[in-house]
Amino acid sequence: MTVIGWLQIALFVLIIGLLTRPFGGYLVRVYAGERTVLRPLLGPLEAALYRAAGIEPKTEQSWLGYSVAFLIFHAIGTIALYALLRLQSSLPLNPQHLSEVSPDLALNSAVSFVTNTSWQSYAGETTLSYASQMAGITVQSFLSAASGMAVAIAFIRGFARTRSATIGNFWVDVTRGTLYVLLPVCVVAALFLMTQGVPQTFAPSAEVATLENGLQIIARGPVATQEAIKLLSGDGGGFFNANSAHPFENPTPLANLAEMVLIFVLGAALTNCFGRMVGSERQGWILLGVMAILFGLGVAGIYALEARGNPAVSALQVDAVANAQRPGGNMEGKEVRFGIAGSALFADVATASSDGAVNAMHDSFMPLSGGILLANMMVDEVIVGAPGSGLFGMLLFCVVAVLMAGLMIGRTPEYVGKKIGSSEIKMTILALMSVPAATLGLTAFACVVERGLAGLGNAGPHGYSEILYAYTSAAATNGSAFAGLSTNSAFYNLTLALGMFMGRFLVIIPVLAVAGSLAAQPIIPRSSGTLPTDRALFLGFLLGVIVIVGGLTYLPALALGPIVENLQMWAGALH
């Protein structure tokens, strides 16, 4: 580890800290329909969209109506993207003359990007046309993020409103999130990435003569616009197979820093948005504090493990200490221009945020580093998470925390003035158990059937970790991979699609049900018997609940993979 490495990490944390409050206030104004700096410019367009769609923006929906609209929206998106991928060979903007995508891969990809997962069982530059990248992947990146933020805002309204039968209008929330938040930030981000060297062109792949008189084909395309939204949306789907390790997606250290900021900024800002909407910014800072502690532990652990390197290499008397001439540590699978610190930070940001973008090969990280990446996803992506999903995931754990605290001290559980009853608890548990059920159930199934084992590239605990990582990534709507597992088969395309479906819809529908139940309640004034949830004590309690629940659920699975592999690695080095 180096001072420069820690300064990179500290600079990133500082930038996120400085952006959280102003972005949080902006989100409150956007979703409340208040005047913002962009409303004079985009307000007429917003009104025109409502008129064209026959939407009355002042008419709100119950939680059931909101859920139906959410499901219809995603069903249409899935069908449209599936059809686009199946028909791409007959559509324009296909200068490479790529063929249509196979049915199982098209279904997997459609479910992946509609659910904000961005799992890719294909190489983007050799599989998707420019039309599929722009009209399919990029559009769904906007819409899936906007719908996730809409659900988070609806959940917040459940806590903030009193005796209300409605939680907002899904179509209005999606429109405002897209127009006033995602589009403006992505325009600025895309222009910045273009200045760093990210291409934005409709020209076909370039053909270049090499020094050996050979022919090299260099893929390019409308990359900058897709790169901006893939990062901001928590989507993470790369234009190129190498994702953000590709020099056309992530060309410079400055671009690397900017991309990480884009990944985290909305998820962090939503905590402040929550605090403002429930009338106490301290509530939001408590949530962000828990996220920051979990994130800090993860990045410190990964950086330390990767900087120490492989003990088997040290046993060969190879000096792995970093100095001016060498980076030291474990550089396998990492870009030299980012180094260990930049790669460790990006990996922790991507798995903590549900983004799934990568600038290094996660499959080449140290075993326990891979375990940390898995753990980030296994806690239901509450460490910032994707825009929307991180916040409502953290609020679900808050419900569990106040229930446990209430049982311990003999008081009725309350959170920000709302009583937590049996119906809220049942829906919360259903939401929290959906991701583990999908992850562990599908992993167990893949480990015992021939078609699941056929995709393995490695035997033993690392091969098991590859399968576990795939289904964890799918169910947690992350999309990153260990990449040693061959998943472009009917078995993996379909089972991973099932995992993504469960991880998205079996979480969000119960969340909306809880929002509707809470919105109908009155807000209870604080009294001497109220458990304070805006203090450091609750921060520590909530942190403990997340760690304990995650550990009890997943520790046996982690023990069979990263932990055993780490023990084997050290045993081999010592002998």
Task: Tell me the layout of helices and strands.
Layout: H1 3-31, H2 39-53, H3 63-87, H4 103-114, H5 124-127, H6 130-160, H7 170-196, E1 206-209, E2 215-218, H8 223-232, H9 253-277, H10 281-308, H11 311-314, H12 339-353, H13 367-378, H14 389-409, E3 414-415, E4 418-419, H15 422-448, H16 450-453, H17 460-475, H18 490-519, H19 536-574
Helix pairs in contact: 1-9, 1-12, 2-7, 3-4, 3-6, 3-18, 4-18, 6-7, 6-8, 6-18, 7-8, 7-9, 8-9, 9-10, 9-12, 10-12, 10-13, 10-19, 12-13, 13-17, 13-19, 14-15, 14-19, 15-17, 15-18, 17-18, 17-19
Top keywords for this entry?
single chain; 575 residues; mainly alpha; two-stranded antiparallel ribbon; two-stranded antiparallel sheet; 19 helices; globular
